[in-house]
UniProtKB/TrEMBL annotation:
Pfam families attached to this UniProt entry: DDE_Tnp_IS240 (PF13610)
InterPro entries according to UniProt: DDE_dom, Integrase_cat-core, IS_Transposase, RNaseH-like_sf, RNaseH_sf, Transpos_IS6
BP term (GO), one: DNA recombination
Lineage, top ranks: Bacteria, Bacillati, Cyanobacteriota, Cyanophyceae, Leptolyngbyales
Annotated protein name in UniProt: Integrase core domain protein
Integrase catalytic domain residues: 26-152
Keyword terms: DNA recombination, DNA-binding, Transposition
Role, per record: Involved in the transposition of the insertion sequence.
Stored NCBIfam families: transpos_IS6
A GO MF term: DNA binding
Length: 152
């Protein structure tokens, strides 16, 4: 815009992003590559407006991001809400195996989803401290960006 002699403030760009990002997201989702069977799910904490929030993220076996969600709490309800969000996306299929860390909220959430028949009964929940290293290492990139900013 500067090359064309138009002065644009950063708040103008932010308004455009807030206006058009949901529409772009809605139109792009159907064209995303379908996911693989095994999923890896993990959460990390980040500071947003001075308050600590939990960032839930899910990736497939190839490391492709399925979805993410911010939550104020790290409990079974938040985990179930995140799983519902990911399973409701058009590009995801029901996973065969979900690998999570030792957080006690995940078994509660998975059982709730199985009872509501949102998740298949054959879906296994694998709790392992070390099998989520792909996702755990990816948290480093988020922390590296957030730390100098002292949060979002």
């Amino acid at each position: 815009m500067q090359e064309r002699g138009v002065a644009v403030d950063h708040s103008t760009l932010n308004r455009q992003v807030l206006k058009y990002a949901p529409e772009i997201d809605k139109r792009i989702r159907p064209f995303l590559k379908p996911t693989n069977d095994p999923w890896r799910v993990d959460e990390t904490y980040i500071k947003i407006r001075g308050k600590w929030r939990y960032l839930y993220r899910a990736v497939d076996s190839e490391g492709n991001m399925l979805d993410f969600m911010l939550s104020a709490k790290r409990d079974g309800k938040a985990a179930a809400r995140f799983f519902r969000k990911v399973l409701g996306a058009k590009h995801t299929q029901t996973p065969r195996v979900i690998t999570v860390d030792k957080n006690a909220a995940y078994p509660v959430a998975v059982e709730e989803l199985k009872q509501d028949q949102i998740l298949k009964a054959q879906t296994k929940l694998r709790q392992s401290k070390y099998l989520n290293n792909v996702l755990e290492q990816d948290h480093r990139n988020i922390k590296r960006i957030v730390k100098p900013m002292i949060g979002f």
